Amino acid sequence: MAATSSPYYVPVDLRHTALLISDVQTQILARFPKEVQENYLSRIQELLSFFRNQSATLRATSETHYDQFAGVPLIIRHTLPFNLNNNAFVSPYNKLAKWVKGLEEKGFFAKVSADAHYPEFSIPEVLKPEGGWGSSCDEIVLGKLQPNCFASSDCVKYLNARGIRHVVLVGLTTMGSILGSARGGADVDYHIICPREGIIDDDPEVDEFLMAKVLPKFVDVVGIEDVLSLNGC
């Protein structure tokens, strides 16, 4: 019987893999119908649980201090600090300013009560780190100032510190953070993996075009089940 071909361009080693959850935050999720939000968050929880279990198992079998950091998957939550300094980090010359203003006018920022100086403030409750922000070196939270995760934060430093080579990228939205981050990560030579069910946009036509026609030229677009079937142990 012929072997099933891999959905990955190169072999994936979970010991050198990160789950990067980009812009999955209350203000952006609010743009989607409630049932879409619930279904989406349940799929992200599947990935989160998988990476947590893999991290725990691999950490338990590590024998050296080096292995404790470089041989265990990493989970990163990346958020935009909406309302920080009245959104002065968004240049009026950047067309994103219009998008941010639109979110504000629709009242999406009014629901945020926590301090925007802390990047965990807008993460949905079901996706927050176990034990809270800063409780584990395997689950970190970063703020950023641009959609591209690799351009305006310390993300690359954390990835390099852990010897990460593969990045499982999920988040909101396809035409926003995902497009920018997928291209940005590939440009600095990370193996980017985009689970299809972990990426959505409120424009289905654009979402389908980008995921089917554009991103596969730069990254591996796979199913969530393809990620869940990986084994790092």
Task: Describe the model.
The chain has 233 residues and is an alpha/beta fold. It has a single domain, classed as Isochorismatase-like (Rossmann fold). It has helices at residues 26-29, 34-61, 65-70, 96-105, 155-161, 174-187, 204-214, 224-228, and strands at 17-22, 74-79, 139-143, 166-172, 191-195, 199-200, 220-222. Strands 1, 2, 3, 4, 5, 6 and 7 form a 7-stranded parallel sheet that branches. Strand 4 (166-172), helix 6 and strand 5 (191-195) form a beta-alpha-beta unit. The mean pLDDT is 89.
Derived from helix and strand composition plus strand pairing, the structural class reads alpha/beta
CATH fold naming: Rossmann fold
Which spans of ≥5 residues are poorly predicted at pLDDT below 50?
Answer: none
Number of domains: 1
- Topology as H/E string? EHHHEHEHEHEEHEH
- Record field, number of beta strands: 7
Can you tell me the CATH superfamily? Isochorismatase-like
Rg computed from alpha carbons, rounded to a whole number of angstroms: 17 Å
Keywords: Hydrolase
GO molecular function: hydrolase activity
Organism: Periconia macrospinosa
Protein name: Isochorismatase hydrolase
